[in-house]
Amino acid sequence: MSDKVVTRFAPSPTGFLHIGGARTALFNWLYAKHTGGTMLLRIEDTDRERSTEAATAAILDGLSWLGLAWDGEAVSQFERSPRHREVAEELVRLGKAYYAYETPAELDAMREKARAEGRPPRYDGHWRDRDPAEAPEGVRGAIRIKAPTEGETVVHDLVQGEVRFPNKDLDDFIILRSDGNPTYMHAVVVDDHDMGVTHIIRGDDHLTNAARQTVIYDAMGWQVPKMAHIPLIHGADGAKLSKRHGALGVEAYRAMGYLPQALLNYLARLGWSHGDDEVMSIEDMIAWFDIVDVNKGAARFDFAKLEALNGVHMRAMDDAALTKVLLETLPHLPDGEAFAEKFDERARAQLLQAMPGLKERAKTLVELADSAAFIVAERPLTLDEKAQAILDADARAVLKALLPEFRALGEWTAASTEAVVRAHAERTGLKLGKVAQPLRAALTGRSTSPGVFDVLAVLGREESLGRIGDQID
RNA sequence: GCGCCCAUCGUCUAGCGGUCAGGACACCGCCCUUUCACGGCGGCGACACGGGUUCGAGUCCCGUUGGGCGUACCA
Length: 473
Known about the structure:
The chain is mainly alpha-helical.
């Protein structure tokens, strides 16, 4: 047995990989990478009603997109149920657990009664010390753990510190259902133990569970792994993350045009920090991440900051790489499929050429795609409102006067077209903007774009002259 | 109800008994500039409240308030 760190990400496949899950996965992954350990993946599919194949696929796909690779094969918790049953039965044999025969209806009644009498709704331990011979005929009971009734259970948490739970508040919870399947509480313990997990990093909504799970570890005489309960992510209004906020699947973030490394950077900084460092690469995160630096308080999800960070990461990429990512991501963006088809080899080259100017004014790949649309726009261009306003009669007259000068131009580059325009402005006494603005509107159909001379160069002589001509006829 | 966790600018955070309480996003100015951005400079803006402990508390302790989680034969 080595002392290598083994973490695990254990989502339940009842939906997509949501943003909170992604961050939990990230922290597990970072800690494993940081320490030279491994991160395992376990699909917690014991709830057969709600678990789906599609959800499992979505989670795997989400992790892959983010680049959070797990080690080894993904483990199906459901497939391990014989082992869970075996341990539960051993606990009974050891006298650490027992069969209980109440029906769900009876348990509901028990809880109702307790609530009505102002007592905590806990199992009353009816079968705890009863002779198994008294078991009702033909009824298969559920197995309950014998939780300690006195003292306290202490959870040593790497983030939360030493957390103490009075044992009188722990009841004899069920570890094996009457249908022979384990409950989550039990399956987790058995799996984490069997998989050799050394560090359990998960959301702090599990902190209370940690005490219950400790009871099972103790009963089996197993060593409790190190635990780290990380704070949850809340919506912008401070309430629990819901669909309204950001509890979308990670694929939704891909569709919104975020770069995986930017999303990871943002997520990492939610609840964890490394001094004043804000922008960091994956390598930085791995080098810097440590559980002791994780905060205790929940953080709110802020799209504005994510977006800003995404802009920084896009600008940090070199043009070829960003062009490649944009083209690859296009099919995932809204209406991106049709848009992607327009990018033939020539248009791709133009996109690459325009990229320096495009990337510094886009915060997401969606914006980047949008501002690159002029490259593959069909003539005659559809002008947006502002472009229409710019191209009034005066502006069209300017373009008309400029056109012959462009036609006479030999070498067609950003520099040469700029020279023409500047000379034209000087001669006619117009401000440079008075020429550049109409030009931009005619060329792109928009009022904003990268430098208009770069646009001219990207579009090329023929296309540029054509688009200008369209506007003055 | 009971148990547990949390609490620094609007948001994310630095801080680990002595700081003009720092940074980032957002917002507002100015500069750069053919537009929009990018970039640069500057501004606004916080220790939830009340008690202690201490020569000295954002930092330690207690309480209050406010959030969150758990309390299932869900995970």
